[in-house]
């Protein structure tokens, strides 16, 4: 009877996995099929490498190279800001944070992960943009503003996963480093963090993936027009 139940559960789990894969495959197929006519008319090279996006012109132009470069620049800036802060915050929460502070800090970080992107965008529009405008001049709508905002947005993902990866390392690693004469800091940064690098890399990849996927708030804070990119 137990073996029969296990077979049923295995079949259910397999069906669920196949459903997820099928859903993603159908979405990609739908986009590809509906994009073929446009790609045939515009040309894949002109679409990807074109520097002008003016669909209302006669004839229209559909170049998305400035958008691609803008996304790359903003994502790189967000990674430079968010990754070091996120990893150091995870180290603090795993090995330095007092229990009373942890009970406040952990729910706060989890709450940040649940805030809608549009709220982040509004925060950037009313706080970050004026700060950059008053500090550096200009109108404040820049890739720097978008990078700072995206760096804040990816923090909960990086902190949460990195902390879990650090806490998953056996205590014997830390105790062994102390027994060999290493300080508390050296034990963490030269033993614990290298041992948790796979989980930390996963956190970085997921964080950058979210940064790439978030476009609404970036469109508020950066100018992606052709003239904003050097060489275009």
Main attributes of the structure:
79% helix, 10 helices, 2 domains, mainly alpha, 2 strands, 232 residues, two-stranded antiparallel sheet
Outline the secondary-structure elements.
Elements (H helix, E strand, L loop, with lengths): L1 H41 L1 H6 L3 E2 L6 E2 L2 H31 L3 H16 L2 H20 L6 H25 L3 H9 L4 H12 L1 H17 L2 H6 L11
Antiparallel strand pairs: 1-2
Helix pairs in contact: 3-6, 3-9, 4-6, 5-6, 6-9, 7-8
Plain-language structure description:
The protein is mainly alpha-helical and 232 residues long. The chain folds into 2 domains: 2-61; 65-228, MetI-like fold (Orthogonal Bundle). It is 79% helix and 2% strand. It contains 10 helices and 2 strands, in the order ααββαααααααα. It has a two-stranded antiparallel sheet. Mean pLDDT is 85; it is low at 223-232.
Beta fraction? under 5%
Number of helices: 10
- Residue ranges: pLDDT <50 for 5 or more in a row? 223-232
Terminal CA distance = 69 Å
Q: What top-tier CATH class of the largest domain fits best?
A: Mainly Alpha
Integer average pLDDT: 85
Number of domains: 2
DSSP helix fraction: over 70%
The CATH superfamily of the largest domain is known as MetI-like
Subcellular location: Cell membrane
Organism: Acetivibrio straminisolvens JCM 21531
Membrane topology: Multi-pass membrane protein
Transmembrane segments: 12-33, 64-97, 109-132, 144-166, 187-212
């Amino acid at each position: 009877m137990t073996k029969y139940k296990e077979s049923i559960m295995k079949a259910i789990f397999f069906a669920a996995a196949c459903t997820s894969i099928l859903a993603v495959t159908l979405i990609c197929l739908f986009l590809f099929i509906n994009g073929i006519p446009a790609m045939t008319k515009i040309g894949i090279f002109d679409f990807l490498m074109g520097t002008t996006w003016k669909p209302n012109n006669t004839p229209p132009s559909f170049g998305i190279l400035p958008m691609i470069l803008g996304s790359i620049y903003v994502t790189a800036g967000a990674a430079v800001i968010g990754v070091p802060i996120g990893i150091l915050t995870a180290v603090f929460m795993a090995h330095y944070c007092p229990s009373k502070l942890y009970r406040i800090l952990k729910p706060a970080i989890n709450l940040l992960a649940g805030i809608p992107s549009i709220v982040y965008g509004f925060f950037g529009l009313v706080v970050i943009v004026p700060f950059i405008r008053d500090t550096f001049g200009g109108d404040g709508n820049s890739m720097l503003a978008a990078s700072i905002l995206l760096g804040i947005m990816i923090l909960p993902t990086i902190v949460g996963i990195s902390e879990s990866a650090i806490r998953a390392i056996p205590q014997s690693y830390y105790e062994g480093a102390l027994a060999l004469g290493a300080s508390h800091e050296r034990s963490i940064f030269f033993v614990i963090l290298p041992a948790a690098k796979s989980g930390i890399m996963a956190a970085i990849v997921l964080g950058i993936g979210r940064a790439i996927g978030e476009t609404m708030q970036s469109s508020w804070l950066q100018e992606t027009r052709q003239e904003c990119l050097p060489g275009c």
